[in-house]
Amino acid sequence: MGKKLYHGAAYYPELWNEEVMEQDIRMMKEAGINVARIGEFAWFTMEPEEGRIDLSFFVHVIDKLYQNGIETVMCTPTPTPPIWFTHGHPERMYVDEHGTVMGHGSRQHACTNNRYFRERAAIITEHIAKAVGPLPGVIGWQIDNEFKAHVSECMCETCKGLWHEWLRERYGTVEQLNDAWGTHIWSEYYHTFEQVPQPGPAPFLHNSSLRTMYQLFSFEKIAEFSDEQAAIIRRYSDAPITHNSSVAFHVDNERLFQNLDFASFDTYVQYDNSPAYLINCDLFRNFKRGRDFWIMETSTSWSASLESYAMAHPNGYLRAEAVAAYALGAEAFCYWLWRQQRAGCEQPHGSVISAWGKPTIGYQSVLEVEQARKEIESVILSTTPAQAEVAMTYSDRSKAFLKTEPHRQLNHRGLVTSFYERILSLGIHRDVIPEGAELDGYKLLFTPFIHYLSDEYKKRAQAFVEAGGIWIVGPLSGGRTEQHTIHTDAALGQWLESLAGVETLYTYPMEGTGTQGQAFGVSAPLGLWSALFQPTEAAPVGVTDGGLAPGTAFITERRHGQGRIVMLGSMPVGEEGDVLLKKLIDHYAAEAGVTLRTDVTNGTIVAPRQGEDFTVWFVVNMDGRGGRVTLPRAGVDVLTGAEVQPGVLQMGPYEHRVVRFPN
Amino acid sequence: MGKKLYHGAAYYPELWNEEVMEQDIRMMKEAGINVARIGEFAWFTMEPEEGRIDLSFFVHVIDKLYQNGIETVMCTPTPTPPIWFTHGHPERMYVDEHGTVMGHGSRQHACTNNRYFRERAAIITEHIAKAVGPLPGVIGWQIDNEFKAHVSECMCETCKGLWHEWLRERYGTVEQLNDAWGTHIWSEYYHTFEQVPQPGPAPFLHNSSLRTMYQLFSFEKIAEFSDEQAAIIRRYSDAPITHNSSVAFHVDNERLFQNLDFASFDTYVQYDNSPAYLINCDLFRNFKRGRDFWIMETSTSWSASLESYAMAHPNGYLRAEAVAAYALGAEAFCYWLWRQQRAGCEQPHGSVISAWGKPTIGYQSVLEVEQARKEIESVILSTTPAQAEVAMTYSDRSKAFLKTEPHRQLNHRGLVTSFYERILSLGIHRDVIPEGAELDGYKLLFTPFIHYLSDEYKKRAQAFVEAGGIWIVGPLSGGRTEQHTIHTDAALGQWLESLAGVETLYTYPMEGTGTQGQAFGVSAPLGLWSALFQPTEAAPVGVTDGGLAPGTAFITERRHGQGRIVMLGSMPVGEEGDVLLKKLIDHYAAEAGVTLRTDVTNGTIVAPRQGEDFTVWFVVNMDGRGGRVTLPRAGVDVLTGAEVQPGVLQMGPYEHRVVRFPN
Amino acid sequence: MGKKLYHGAAYYPELWNEEVMEQDIRMMKEAGINVARIGEFAWFTMEPEEGRIDLSFFVHVIDKLYQNGIETVMCTPTPTPPIWFTHGHPERMYVDEHGTVMGHGSRQHACTNNRYFRERAAIITEHIAKAVGPLPGVIGWQIDNEFKAHVSECMCETCKGLWHEWLRERYGTVEQLNDAWGTHIWSEYYHTFEQVPQPGPAPFLHNSSLRTMYQLFSFEKIAEFSDEQAAIIRRYSDAPITHNSSVAFHVDNERLFQNLDFASFDTYVQYDNSPAYLINCDLFRNFKRGRDFWIMETSTSWSASLESYAMAHPNGYLRAEAVAAYALGAEAFCYWLWRQQRAGCEQPHGSVISAWGKPTIGYQSVLEVEQARKEIESVILSTTPAQAEVAMTYSDRSKAFLKTEPHRQLNHRGLVTSFYERILSLGIHRDVIPEGAELDGYKLLFTPFIHYLSDEYKKRAQAFVEAGGIWIVGPLSGGRTEQHTIHTDAALGQWLESLAGVETLYTYPMEGTGTQGQAFGVSAPLGLWSALFQPTEAAPVGVTDGGLAPGTAFITERRHGQGRIVMLGSMPVGEEGDVLLKKLIDHYAAEAGVTLRTDVTNGTIVAPRQGEDFTVWFVVNMDGRGGRVTLPRAGVDVLTGAEVQPGVLQMGPYEHRVVRFPN
After folding, report:
1. Which of A301, B28, B180, C557 meets the CB 3.0–4.6 Å disulfide criterion with B33?
2. Are β-strands A647-651 and C643-644 bridged in parallel, bridged antiparallel, or unpaired?
3. Where would I find the Beta-galactosidase C-terminal domain in this sequence (chains A, B, C) (predicted)?
4. Is residue C142 within 8 Å of residue C73, measured between CB atoms?
């Protein structure tokens, strides 16, 4: 890895015969597929009966692919344990929040914490690692598949026991747990860890701490399984390891990728919502910084199952997606899937070729991607994504907090993406970073929708501010403790309020109160659960009008060290709210001295990359409506070699341009 | 049967006393009720304790009715096994897809595959058949009641065992099942039939084959139960046997009626949706061809339960319903129910008389039906429905496929009815026929929404085409195999594509792609999952404009033998789509030489019937808005004896006219 | 009690430390809180281990409060049994209608009918009563908390046994139950009481009698538990006992309060729906007539849980609420809660002070309430609510009937409140009374939405009419028997039809039939399930136009004794329906000689109170839009002492005025 751009597809040779495989490989070469991901559901093929393991088929496949110039990402097959594991063993199966025990026949039906599951998973993975690890075709590994995509927190008896262990480790004594969770409330108090329930059926809501901690426990356990699997593979292979994850799954991606080698994600965002696609690129690039990420799965045209489908991509969109991905740091752009399934529940899903071996409606787009890949490969390989000056923190732990406490059905991904979209639309080059990311290199940091700010995070943010950064906190950030309880020293905690130089006067749901927020010359309705401030050391930047507490600050700013901390206590909503938020971002980007931004029109992106002594702009129209951007100086069109003049560059629908500027 | 038109009602004398029965019978005579259906929920009355069986009450009732000129359809009481069967026996009860076990107190709560249920059902039915079979009043039988109306596929342990047996019979070896279902996918593979699960709780969707086959298994089992019951009755009675079914229930009506003697159905379509009513008449007429069907249940005005109700019929509607039914081949038009229930969960349901023995709001309509029945009886009895030239195939098996694979919540009944409505609205006399129906006599055959075309069906359709028929295939037809998998030789299977002279280029969901279909001078948006064609031997008739593959055929036509095969690969939608579809139907009706059609206005129907040397048109306004139709020649108004001139016949709201033309 | 107006808050000192308690008490005094309700969830604090009971903390709290001038309502803590009761004892837990067993960690998770629960509840309550009963600070008691707010009818095995006992007591023999419920239907018949199921999972609806009776059983059992608890307390304390109930809970409030000393309720109606708030005052005043009620819980601004929130009150609304409550007969106006929870699932709920001990956004409103309370206390204490001349009967049993038989998702509370709102909007002083209330003093009685009229009720209503009252029956009243079956002598029962001098011709759902009702010069569409009448001795007052039975009476009037009985067979709907209903109310109020009404504008109320030789009007604007009312004569503004002239009194938003008139 690291030496080319990959263009790949998920491949299931175990479902077809040798003849079909020959045809597949021939057609893959025609389509420019240079990497195949295999094996993630093939446990049965590898171990048809318990203990009878035979990997020769996959050795054969990998070799055959390799002989044809196609490299392989090998997967562990643990999402689908065979019938010999599941049949007659309800105690090994996933149990949902209603207590329903899953049966055989779908995927993720086993509890990944079941001890015997872990044992059998370790055995099969070790066999695979041993058998295919040494093969020259194997350039990478994928653990399992889309952890926790269909399921969330398992409620089985095994998990109950592990939950109690996990609590014991976290809290030491049950008394400390009781204190932390405030279990005197509703006489919840536990005398032993064994008495702490899983958050199953109850007449009304469980304690917030119980609900959030059970999610964090589940996050940790699935990551632990991934760690175990990776450790086994590493004993036999040096190829890097990943997992095809997503912010839609019930995992803590930051924790999950901690012990993996590179980040990858699956995405089936519909074409008319490209910011929700781009945020993935900007985020997954940062899980393993300095290492290109992979798009491990996307559709050539539409995703589908027996019971649903997304709209097919317009012609041109797939290429735009691929170019944007490579430009934003992807090393690979891979399809799910190569050949349409003939059976199962994903038969209708889009693919490169059909179940009858013919090009699908997406095939032409695949050829276009390949064409583009070839054209941009050398410029991509000789550059890296430019260091962003603006970052927004993303937290899956925060998603867990919001799942516990959604106020009015708030959706974490929706909130975060919508905030991100505004930064994007201002033409700002940006990173979306995990909570634990170092903040070096940034000038402006956004921390929206993070109920609980960890001490480590706060420490880093404070240092960032002191060193000259501008830190914008909110909305909905800081109001909960690590235990998912309310602070008792100040609404947002004494530390944050002191640093920000404010006292939070009130927190309450702002909807329906008729409150307008005035800031940056704009007046907009305020929404979401809000905090209103009495500036102590800070200056008011946004002030309320109307509502229950007119004339109160909802945005404040305070200089601290070389930088500033800005509190955003409420969410401006509606069209004016959008304007206000963008003005805020624009204002602080200017104040922070952000230079890496363009006047690119909405729906088109500029992805700047840095070469040794030059800069490259990848300009891609993502919305099919075309657009434009002003080039600040003359450059060279990398694809044509032609000179490009400064001034407005017009972009056609889904068009991409690559412009090189001397440094 | 066969000698009069019946006008009937469901009757529950076991719920009332002798005095009420006297009143009921007196009032039935006044209302013109000449047949009562009894006994279907009376198992307790017949066998209050296990083994203590006494049918004398029903013998008495039947005799009493008969003495008063009212004949009887006797039912078996198996939908409601008494408490001695159910209490303390959860293993005998129906289990739903979530694993929930039903309790006593509603209906269809027992598993009809439970062995002891079958045993007790056989015993009570034999006793009934013996006791009432010889009575002169018994003119017909009904097995059970509305099979699978409230439940679908049972998941109990008994069913699990039978499922495994059924699979063994169907597939012979488990290896053949694995091959057929493609169970290497997701490591589903089974080593024994006993390992094949029922499609219960799972994190994501089950394999399509599993889901569809479990439905077909359930279809077969309920039909088998019906067969068993019918066989018992036949040992003691020559009266014909039916079941009161519906396309809304989870049964395969074609299979169910195979071993029954005449078809009947229950209908509670609301008055403002008369095509959904008429399709039943056109379909059920064809389950037992040459034998008149029965409407076994309909409401005099509104249907209701404790938790819902439909709107009451406008005055006049019930008579229009009855006349249309008789004209379209019904021998009987029966109400549910005679006397409003005083207890239970259907107390609010409409009836002929109230629980306190008085006429209901529907009573006057019942008198009007009786008046009409008397007036048309002789002309109905001396004619038969004219042979239709146009047929549309209806398949409950296809409904099962669509339940497994609904794309975006597609509703089989809605799709089919909507297609039917267009044929109806063009004034074409039509049949809706089961898959197994012979095609003799038809000129034009529609096969929409049938995922899987069986070999037998294809053979018959090919012969039909070769003999000069026009066969229109699609939308959504032919794309799945018998096993509910994807073809691997061609999108719609090699057989069909060869015959149609096309190669399917692409199949994909058409919504949102901006694709217009151009055909018959109309341009309409295309929707639903679609197939686009490369005509090989065929001619393009409809071609796409815009979208992902502009200029591609979505309608093709090929001459074959004396006839033609037309592929309809996509669904024109919206108002223009409606126009396009009607133009298509109109065009091919003309091409096929369909003559049995009129210019009747929408909302009014013409039901032609054939006498020895004359034709009769029943013209009925169904929508309450009146209408008109052009009479091609002079005739006689059968109801008045007056001459009717050629030309426009005006119809008042809900009016019916009967016009006789010499041949 | 009885000597001041209370202004209170729910208080949870067991969740905080002594220092916080000191702060709390200091701040309570500042805010004018003079009563605290404590202990209702503190079972763990009181009895941390089974049998180890220590009430000293609460003795301390109560004393401390008392020393600071704050009195206490002491609660029994039974909604939240501690983990020693629940852990490992699924048989003690609540089971819902799907058979799901609740776990520890929320509230109302135990079955209140479990014998061991009752035993432990009796023990803890006796200890509490003994320990704190003698304290001077304890001025009242609350049993448990919001019975059946989160749960409804428990389906556990204990309940099954009690259900059978209850049935045996009610019906004597199972044969009588079978007759009453009509169990021959669907072969439901039971041979023993033990066979009668609980209304759990079934393929379709259960028998109406079963469903309604199970609700009544549940009503009785929870009231029995309340009785038991109250009896224990009375052995040690003379302080009056209540329960904080609501019409939203699954209880029969009339039965529940039968053995309690005063009525109280919790209300979280949003500010924009004040009639739904006011109906509570007008109803709960009448559960214990002659005894002021308490508002035991309301929010200072908004209610919330982790998963939902209501909109915050506008400034001024809380004071209007409080003044209206006191004026309408409340002795206390109490908040939930004093100090925001720091943990649990109600952290986000509005409060008086925050978790960090600061005023919330609602705090200022609390001060305004206190100011108003002080200003009106003496006039309230020297007066009582004026005797209403108009009453509307409210029945929780009727709510149970409607839950069993909701027609089309009818909502009892919505129907009743909407009817009430019309009386309110006409400026009529009114009572909402339980079924068992005496009718002395009323001139006009409304009985809407009461499916079943008991013999006692009918007897009282008849006497009321004979003595000169006007009784308006309907809509939806009288059509079911005590057993929730249909009458068999007449649609609404012979007794009612005879008394009303009508014969019900038809009952049917009126929607969609195009029926207009003509009455009082208005024509309005008719809706809901309706009864149409043939007047026998009555006069038609409203007659249908169009629809299925044009020209039929839907409102009739008959003189009987000195009074009249008016049948309202249908529900006028839409804007015209609203007009028609108001005309009807207005007309009969005039006919009945109702004098206690004003021309107050909609959204403002007048609450008249009677002193020894004077009358006081409390005029309160509830909708924030201001309003006006005509004063009939000169009076004195009680708050300012100024004279007030006859004529129009203008009211500002949320303003209240208190005007005293000499008698």
Report:
1. B28
2. unpaired
3. 603-660
4. yes
Q: Is residue C442 part of a domain?
A: yes
Domain of residue C456: give its range. Answer: 390-591
**Chain C neighbors of A202, CB-CB under 8 A:** 102-103, 105-106, 109
Q: Which residue of C has its CA nearest to B304?
A: C407
For residue C157, the distance in angstroms to the closest alpha carbon of chain B comes to 14
Domain assignment present for residue B597? The answer is no
Say yes or no: B214 contacts chain A, CB-CB below 8 A: no
Task: Report if residue C351 sits inside a domain.
Answer: no
Q: Judge if A542 and A648 occupy the same domain.
A: no
The interface predicted TM-score (ipTM) is 0.96
Which of the four pLDDT bands, split at 50, 70 and 90, describes residue A663?
confident
Domain boundary among B591, B621, B640: B591
pLDDT digits (tens, 9 = 90+) for A173-219: 999 999 999 999 999 999 999 999 999 999 999 999 999 999 999 99
- Measured between alpha carbons, how far is residue A405 from residues A395, A485, B42, C343, C402 in Å? 15, 11, 53, 12, 34
Is there a single domain that holds both residue B544 and residue B658?
Answer: no
Alpha carbon distance C213, C167 (integer Å)? 9
Q: What per-residue confidence (pLDDT) applies to C663?
A: 82
Overall number of domains in chain C: 2
pLDDT the model gives residue C620: 98
Contacts of A408 in chain C (CB under 8 A): 308-309
pLDDT in the model for residue A592: 98
Measure in Å the smallest separation between the Cα of B587 and chain C Cα atoms.
38
B579 plus B619 within the same structural domain? no
User: What integer is the mean pLDDT of A104-121?
Assistant: 97
* Alpha helix stretches (DSSP H) within A561-611: 574-591
| Under 8 Å between Cβ of A484 and A208 | yes
Give the helix, strand, coil percentages of chain C, each rounded to 5. 35, 25, 40
Q: What is the pLDDT of residues B641-658, one digit of tens each?
A: 999 999 999 999 999 999
- Residue C345 marked ligand-binding: no
Q: Is residue B406 less than 8 Å (CB to CB) from chain A?
A: yes
Residues 117 to 176 of A: which have CB under 8 A from any B CB?
150-151
Give residue-wise pLDDT tens across range A379-429. 999 999 999 999 999 999 999 999 999 999 999 999 999 999 999 999 999
Would the CB atoms of A195 and C350 count as touching at under 8 Å? no
CA distance B44 to chain C (A): 5
Q: Does C508 touch chain B (CB under 8 A)?
A: yes
pLDDT above 90: residue C614: yes
Same domain, residue pair C526 and C614: no
This model's pTM is above 0.90: yes
d(CA B479, CA C617): 78
Least CB–CB distance from B201: residue in A42, A101, A309: A101
Q: Is C145 annotated as a binding residue?
A: yes
Q: How many C-alpha atoms does A199 have within 13 Å on its Cβ side?
A: 21
CA dihedral B315, B320, B326, B332 (to 10 degrees): -20
A77 closest CB neighbour out of B187, B207, B514: B187
What's the mean pLDDT when you consider all of chain C? 98
Q: What is the DSSP letter of B195?
A: G
Q: Which of A99, A203, A513 sits opposite C150 (nearest CB)?
A: A203
Q: B469, B457, B477: which is closest to B569 by C-alpha?
A: B477
Interface test with C, best of A187, A498, A511 (most C CBs within 10 A): A187
**Where a domain ends, among C591, C617, C634?**
C591
In a domain, B467, yes or no: yes
B421 and B459 in a single domain? The answer is yes
At A265, is the pLDDT very low, low, confident or very high (cuts 50, 70, 90)?
very high
